[in-house]
Design brief:
Layout lengths: L6 E4 L5 H12 L3 E6 L3 H13 L4 E5 L5 H15 L4 E4 L17 H29 L2 E6 L3 H4 L5 H21 L3 E8 L5 H7 L1 H14 L8 H13 L8 E4 L3 H4 L7
Parallel strand pairs: 1-2, 1-4, 2-3, 4-5, 5-6, 6-7
Helix pairs in contact: 1-2, 1-9, 3-4, 4-6, 7-8
Length: about 260
């Protein structure tokens, strides 16, 4: 078992952007921790793909909203490899609701979304930070959303949670340097099962077509597009911290609508 290869924890890496990032890291010589909450079959498929790409892997079930789970994920990583070099906070939840429908979300919706999207990311960083500090080097990438910059997206609680995640990225980049770099990636539209299920097929296809016709780059984003930037920030951007990078084919330049209807 190699303890010389860099190790990354990717939360929510059973599917979508998280799975794409884990596989990309595996192909670049990292060992990876595959985290999931309920999607065991998909997590096993993600793990198999990473192993095929040459990585050693660790499967870690856990809900990042639970501090004990965060600590357990990091403890298992340290037990296996004795190091943690990178963390991608990708786990996230939402509720699809038109922003104008104020009665469509509840206090519990806000609390659940914040508990995963903001508190979960914080708890994972807190669990990793002592080990990264001791190593003298580490990097974190928070997967946010242009919703947190533009006040759009699947719902008000989701947009608000991503805005909070962006602010937290800045705060912790200041607080945890020089050893730890922390940045955020803000995806726009992503071709994904999650978005298709949330929006419905007709709205999803219309939005995808709009992205391909109206954004400056005429492109509807993929999980791999987003993972590419996250992986670059994690492993190569040695002089970059406290950045919030929008990865949306330029949709934000024209205020392209990205919201649940």
């Amino acid at each position: 078992m190699s303890k010389d290869k860099r190790v990354a924890i990717v939360t929510g890496s059973a599917t979508g952007l998280g799975a794409a990032a884990a596989l990309m890291l595996a192909g670049k010589g990292w060992n990876v921790v595959i985290n999931y909450t309920k999607s065991l079959k998909e997590a096993q498929e993600s793990e198999a793909a990473c192993q095929k790409a040459g990585a050693e892997t660790l499967m870690a079930q856990g809900d990042v909203a639970e501090d004990a789970d965060c600590k357990a994920i990091v403890a298992a990583t340290m037990k296996k490899w004795g190091r943690v070099d990178g963390l991608i906070n990708n786990a996230g939840v939402s509720k699809f609701n038109n922003h104008a429908n104020l009665d469509g979300v509840t206090k519990d919706d806000f609390l659940r979304i914040y508990s995963v999207n903001v508190i979960g990311a914080y708890q994972m960083i807190r669990a990793c930070a002592p080990h990264m500090k001791q190593q003298g080097k580490g990097a974190v990438v928070n997967i946010s959303s242009i919703a947190g910059v533009m006040g759009i997206g699947s719902s008000v609680p989701y947009a608000a949670s991503k805005g909070a995640l962006n602010t937290m990225t800045l705060s912790l980049a200041r607080a945890l340097g020089p050893e730890i770099r922390i940045n955020a990636v803000c995806p726009g539209f992503i071709q994904s099962r999650w978005l298709l299920t949330g929006l419905g097929e007709e709205t999803y296809n219309n939005l995808k077509k709009s992205q391909e016709q109206t954004t400056p780059l005429r492109h509807a984003g993929t999980p791999e597009d987003m993972a590419e930037v996250a992986v670059w920030l994690l492993e190569a951007a040695g002089n970059v911290t406290g950045e919030v990078i929008m990865v949306d084919a330029g949709a934000h330049l024209a205020g392209a609508p990205l919201k649940a209807r």
